[in-house]
Amino acid sequence: MGGISVTGISDSLMEMQAKKNTLLLQPYQLRQKNIESKISAWGKIRSSLQTLLEKSNALKNDAFYAMKMSENKAFSASASSGAMAGTHNIRVSQLAHNHTLSLTMEKGIDTPLGNSAATRNLKISQKGENGQIKETVISLAQEETSLAGIAKSINGKNAGIRAEVKSVDNEGTQRLILRAQDSGSAGEMALSVEGDTTLAAIMNYTTPPEEPGDSTDSGEVSEKIKQDLPATDAIIWVDGNKYTRSSNTINDILTGVTLTLKQTSKDDESEALTLSPDESAVQEAVEEFVTAFNDYITQSSSLSKFTTANYSNLKTDTVALPDATNGPLAGESLLTDLQALLRRDAGSNYGNDDVTSIADLGIKVDAKTGKLELDSTKLKNKIHTNPEEVQRLFLGTEEKPGLAGVMSDHIKGYVGRDGKGNIIKDETEKLEKDKKEAKKQLERTEATIEARMRAFQKQYQQMEVAITKLQSLQGSLSAIQTLSKN
To answer: How far apart, in Å, do the first and last CA atoms of the chain sit?
Structure first.
């Protein structure tokens, strides 16, 4: 036994066990890492699908309803679904105004304007829609009868009126401004004060003395509330017919068209509003759809890539691993089915006559990659010469759905629709459960290995002690033998 070196024997044995344990843990660690990679990969797939869904919906909901609008001085216009090409004669006779009153005083902003009564009531009446009178009663304490107090009390009641106090000059003159939140005659205000004749003389307001459209704002101290802007409705003539509206934004005269009135028509003359299909909007929407589709194909192909691993030089003490270039979703039938579904959607027939598939628009499907190849010139010509057929291909008819609708429905099944049919979410939740279980398995295995290592360490240390004792005994016996020979 003299040839045995005791020093560090337990450390060497423990190092050997640690290497074995590393190999034992590796499958559990790899499983946990693979699950995390799959969760991340499905998140990327979901993101690219949502972008593709957005572009499909743009084709379905907006692009084919986009209109080019003429530029007009008295009004501007915007179009949405339902708008039709054509020309309309429009004349703006009167703009809608928010009723505005003001009170200008040389007294301080916090100086009470009422008498010494403890309380009084300020009643605000507005015509409201369809002649339904709206009344708000505000109780004011004596200290609340100042310009600032009145403004604060009105704003605190949400009475449909915005009140504010403005400094007029450097002499301390202040102006209380009351502005109806609703424009037109519906917002016309009437004010009356009960329980304070002093404040009533200042604040009571009923029918204005001026004709509608006139302003009494001279900028001078008034000592009594007055009208700055009347509560007028908008008056507009469209194709010879008169319309009255309470707002300068009007969306119920021309279907799918919103008119925003800016000024009255010059010399009471009509302007022509021209609506024509915006072919560039369709072109742009189709091009963005193609880009989104190709981005999805690139993403999904990368995440599902598979290369057979080369194990010819694998060592006996090494774990066999998949090829490092493989995607985390390689071999996932769920993704494979989705890829096949969307490629089939892109390559199917939807239209009739001159335009039956996207190939007729100059969009080819690459048989090898599955990506779409776009001929922008051919697409532009088709949109210009046969817009109805192009629209039918993407939007479909009542009898037959179009490409945009079919693909949108399929994508929604994977990313969710109205809280239902979220295949990717279901798969991700399943993976999250697997991840938790894999973590528990790893922790249990680590705990088992740790306990085993402690036991090994104790055994190896005991072995070292025993060997040391044997070596010591051997030394003693050798010494006795030497003495006996002498």
So the answer is: 24
What is the number of other CB atoms lying within 10 angstroms of the CB of residue 181?
13
Q: How many whole angstroms separate alpha carbon 111 and alpha carbon 107? A: 6
Tokens 């949400």 sit at which residue? Answer: 158
71: which residues sit within 8 A by CB, 6+ positions away? none
Q: What is the DSSP string of 206-256?
A: -S-SSPTT-----SS--SS-EEEE--PPEEEEETTEEEEESSSEE-SSSTT
In our burial notation (b when 16+ CB lie closer than 10 A, e otherwise), range 97-111 reads bbbbbbbbbeeebee
CA atoms within 13 A on the CB side of 440: 6
Nearest in space to 391 (alpha carbons), one of 279, 296, 298, 230: 279
| Chain mean position to CA 137 | 42
Torsion of CA 146, 147, 148, 154, to 10 degrees: 100
Distances (CA, A) of 80 to 66, 69, 76, 215, 259: 7, 12, 14, 37, 12
Residue type (1 letter), 94: Q
**Exposure of 18 in the CB half-sphere (CA atoms within 13 A):** 7
Within 10 Å of residue 220's Cβ, how many Cβ atoms? Answer: 9
Instruction: Give me 369's structure tokens.
Output: 């990659």
Residue 123 near residue 195, CB atoms below 8 Å = no
| Domain annotation for the chain: domains and CATH numbers | 1-66+290-306+322-348+393-486 (1.20.1330), 67-95+234-277 (no CATH), 100-229 (no CATH)
pLDDT tens series, the chain, 486 aa: 444 554 555 556 556 666 666 666 667 667 778 888 888 999 999 999 999 999 999 988 878 888 888 999 999 999 887 888 899 999 999 999 999 999 999 888 999 999 999 999 999 999 887 778 889 999 999 999 999 999 999 999 988 899 999 999 888 899 999 999 999 999 999 999 999 999 999 999 986 554 443 444 444 555 799 999 999 999 999 999 999 999 999 999 999 999 999 999 998 899 999 999 899 999 999 999 999 999 999 999 999 888 776 666 666 666 556 666 788 888 889 999 999 999 999 989 987 777 899 999 999 999 888 999 999 999 999 999 998 899 999 988 888 899 999 999 999 999 987 656 688 888 888 888 877 876 777 677 767 767 676 666 666 666 667 777 776 777 667 767 776 665
How distant is the alpha carbon of residue 31 from its chain centre?
35
Q: Which residues pair with 161 in a beta bridge?
A: 180
* Residue 81, token pair as written in the block: 């679904």
pTM: 0.63
The half-sphere exposure of 328 on its side-chain side, counting CA atoms within 13 A, is: 18
Look at the block and give the residue holding tokens 């003389």: 201
Per-residue tokens: 265: 């028509």
